[in-house]
Amino acid sequence: MSMAQITMACFTRCFKRMQRERAGALMSIQLRILALWLMFACALPQARAAEAVEITHAHIELADEGYRLAASYGFDLNHGLEDAIQHGVQLYFTTQIELTRPRWYWFDEKAITAKQTSRISYNVLTRQYHVAIIGSVQQSFSTLEDALFLIRRPSRWLIAPRTALKTGEFYNVTLLMGMDRDYLPKPMQVNAFNNSDWRLSSNKKTFLYKAE
Fold first, then answer.
1. Which of 93, 94, 99, 92 is nearest to 68 (CA)?
2. Is the pLDDT of residue 78 over 80?
3. Which of 32, 184, 189, 207 is deepest in the core (most CB within 10 A)?
């Protein structure tokens, strides 16, 4: 074999090896892109579910008996949740609020931490929907939409007495609202925590409040 043939053979082997390495690198990049798309696709339904409740309005007002939260929420029940109510499953919605006062010399002071849970249920015999705040008297409605209206537009909620806040001080308010799966029967909780149809909650809403 001549020197020219040997040189050509070496060049050909090097060229083919470079092509294989390039193809392998390209395949690796494509697999990484595909993996990212799959991660995004899996996370997207959870992101949509987590934003299913919109806090459309929220403010704190001072009354004779203390501080009250006035809030309203926007959400709809999917078919799975509507079907669950029709079959006798009680759904619970919990609102959580926290007021903290910033302190430059130490951790923020937690002035108010409160929680309120509402229950909605359906009685097959009377064909009535019932809504109640846990620990209070329930109200009855003939349609699901009327029952949900009370949860979307609850009455002003007393979150703390007048002495809980310092007049003139500013407080950071954090508000959350969503379906509380902890109240479901134990056999249903595993399915509910793994089923996106049962994830119905808001993002945190934050705002500043000056105590009166």
1. 99
2. yes
3. 184
